[in-house]
Fold this sequence. Notes:
- This protein is mainly β.
- The protein is built from one helix and nine strands; from the N terminus they run H-E-E-E-E-E-E-E-E-E.
- The protein has an eight-stranded antiparallel barrel.
- The radius of gyration is 18 Å and the shape is elongated.
- 27% of the residues are buried.
Amino acid sequence: MKQRVLLSILFIFSFLSLAFAQEKENLAKMGLGLEYGNWKPGTLDDNPGNPFKNVRGAAPYCGLTFVTPSFKNYSLRFSILQWQQKHLGDRTNKESVTLRHFSAEIKNLIIAESKIVPYVSYGISAIWSREVPVGSEREKIPLDRAGYGVNVGAGVDLQVLEHWAIAAEYQYMYAKFTKKVGLTDNYSGPKISFKVMCLF
């Protein structure tokens, strides 16, 4: 099953690269994009064999990404995303937890000057949490806490039009809090993301 999914993704990327080939490669330029995907903290994951199934009570995350122009196949990337897990009342005294994750990363282009550009990324992150306790409306006072993280991953950029690109990426995110937030203090786990980028 996993092999079929990977082969399907590879086929789609190859087809799009041929169908939308341009004379000029812009993937080394500055980009601004939208990000959508699945973050699966290992301590909360009841289905580790299915990377596309969210943890219980969580929805896919969404975020924004900014990439600087590359210099000698390196660029900086800044991303901010929001992830939320709801319906925790049967497992803890919190109704929901929301994590906002800001990361600063180095993006290393493995093959530059191409329509299809594989890359690796690594960086650090700051994480802010917001918890909503179970109780009456008056008692639902948000609780905030800060955490930190380290990100390592690999992905592929594909230029589909002169100023547009799409990307798929797998990252492992090490994410920790000093105290329990929601159901755990350890939100480390894999993150699979899909991105649409506008290139400048």
